[in-house]
Specification:
By secondary structure, this protein is an alpha+beta fold. It has one domain: Alpha-Beta Plaits, CATH 3.30.70. It contains 5 helices and 5 strands. β2 and β3 (about 60-65) form a beta hairpin. α1 (about 25-45) runs antiparallel to α3. The longest helix has 17 residues, at about 25-45. The chain starts with 11 loop residues before the first strand and ends with a strand.
Length: about 120
């Protein structure tokens, strides 16, 4: 993660995601990809902060980036790219939202924003 003084105002790109794991039998595959993706995010260029919550069978991520481009590079490469390839195998649905802010988001705000986005059903 990059070093940022969170007491100063900084323009950030924020991504929040909700994913619903299909079943307990899919949890090993889900957690293997989730842990690799989280590790990748910590090392990704422009990552300010990565937060996760897993109230089973849902999983939430809240990532804060220096720019949209930094987030897209992370999303489309490495472990995260591999995880997206198996998403329909481990997940029944997901939703994601992005926004820009000058203040660090709270989980409460991210959860409210996620509820404004339609849940996408996956098949496989």
């Amino acid at each position: 993660m990059c070093e940022v003084d969170l007491n100063k105002s900084i323009h950030m790109f924020i991504s929040a995601t909700e994913l619903r794991v299909k079943s307990i039998f899919k949890s090993p595959l889900f957690f293997r990809h989730a842990m690799r993706s989280i590790k990748q995010s910590y090392q990704a260029e422009g990552n300010i902060k990565t937060l996760t919550k897993v109230p089973w069978p849902k999983a939430y991520t809240l990532t804060i980036w220096k720019s949209k481009e930094d987030m897209l590079h992370y999303r489309n490469s490495g472990a995260h790219k591999d995880a997206m390839k198996v998403m329909s195998e481990v997940s029944s649905s997901f939703r994601s939202i992005h926004w820009e802010s000058d203040t660090m988001p709270l989980w409460k705000d991210a959860m409210e924003k996620l509820q404004t986005v339609e849940l996408i059903k996956l098949r496989k």
